[in-house]
Sequence to fold (395 residues):
Amino acid sequence: MTTASRRLAQRVQLKDKHIITRMMEIASELDDVIKLGRGDPDLDTPAHIIRAGQEALGAGATHYTNPMGMPELRQAIADDIARYGGAQYAPEDIVVTPGGQQAMFIIALGLLDPGDELLIPCPGYNPYLQAAELTQAKLVEIRTSMETNFTLTADMVREHVTPRSKVLILINPGNPTGTVIPPDEVERICEVAREHDLIVVSDEIYARITFNGHRAQPVAALPGMRERTITLSGVSKAYAMTGWRVGYFAGPSDLMPALAEIHHAFAISTSAVGQHAALAALTGPQDCVEEIRQTFDERRKVLCAGLDELGIPYAEPEGAFYVYARVAETGVGATEFCERLLAEGRVMIFPGKIYGDYTDDFARMSLTQPVPRIEEALGRMAGVVESIRAERAGA
Ligand SMILES: Cc1ncc(COP(=O)(O)O)c(C=O)c1O
Fold:
């Protein structure tokens, strides 16, 4: 037993969390790495939003705000949710957090006792797994597969429900897969949630970024769901505002006061300047969202066409800004592929294992660089794939 493992609480001795750290270390030694790893768009926050942040600072937005978030921002969030076909929320039912990321941990701490079961479709966004592990809840992975484009179905949920099941996570559109669950399937999944008294955490952070007419159904708007759904979202993705750190969650009135207290204890409040910028994002012109969506759509087409040429299969990205590709098709596992692609090709992508142990055939590629850089990344990838295939042929 090492000193650290004696000192760290057992719940934080997480398995295999070092792949990204290792890749960051390799990348820091290299020049000109094309980063298709993190979900952080290269795009600038639209100018009118930046201006609103600057003006707010000039006007003294340098203090804590109302712990739950500025009332006018919570009203704007309620209006935004409703504008896109979501449920009706009062500002009191919304808490603004430093990114949707923190909301995941507040929700997990607020809802899960040790041994409670949290159902999560896998591959799925890994912080949810970490949040559940910290609460010592039991993680129940619902494994989706590429044969069905990683779509979750109501039958799959039903097969995994037990009397200890408490929370179901839905990430729609999905990260890392880009899958959009068809709206009628979302309805069927909600039927299961109602039958088994599950709370649904509906992560809709990518809902404004969908392709080819796909649409992510807001869960809380469905019959009987508002009282058992926590909607989680934020401005990071749709407005290219990752660094401002503003997200939120909205939920039923009986749960929100206790969850708001946890947020208060964690953060006191979300940064005032970020909240002013988010207010400008949600209440200002919305054409920037469509421009951002189109940018990702164009990049998606380029990356997918390049992967087709390389003979690397992938899940059809229907939303979000990722391509989840079966890179093991090249002849090596995804973790090795990602490490080689970084070391030999100076392209950073993330191994699928991060998003669920069983998907080490896959890697996630983010559409977070402009088209010419994606083309350059594909060229570099082709070189690495060629040497892997040549080695395999010679072996
Ligand atoms: C599915 C999903 N939810 C939530 C988040 C959190 O984003 P933020 O904390 O920037 O709001 C992310 C970030 O990548 C994400 O992919």
In short: The radius of gyration is 21 Å.
